[in-house]
Write a structure and sequence with these properties.
Blueprint: E1 8-12, E2 18-19, E3 26-27, E4 31-34, E5 41-45, H1 50-65, E6 69-70, E7 76-77
């Protein structure tokens, strides 16, 4: 992916995290989505751990390889040519 022409944006975004009833419990959620505004593939991390980043990069690789594309709000299109559906 380092040799890719695709720009990947990586951000910490805890807005999707779920708080637990007890402090220290809950779930940190991350996501990746294609940003049609700037053409970047954005990775939004629920926390800044290396494990969370590694997990999301594992999802980003199929996008890089052309095996998966991503639409608005995380809606997947498994054939990138289906983007015409949005127009």
């Amino acid at each position: 992916m380092t040799a890719s022409k695709q720009v990947y944006g990586i951000y910490t975004d805890n807005s999707m995290n779920i708080s637990g009833a007890v402090s220290g419990t809950g779930e940190n959620k991350s996501m990746e989505v294609f940003n049609f505004t700037n053409g970047n593939f954005d990775i939004k991390l629920g926390d800044s751990s290396l494990g969370m980043l590694a997990h999301e990069l594992k999802h980003a690789y199929p996008f890089e390889a052309g095996a998966f594309s991503s639409g608005p709000q995380g809606l997947p299109f498994y054939d990138q040519s289906n983007i015409d559906f949005l127009n």
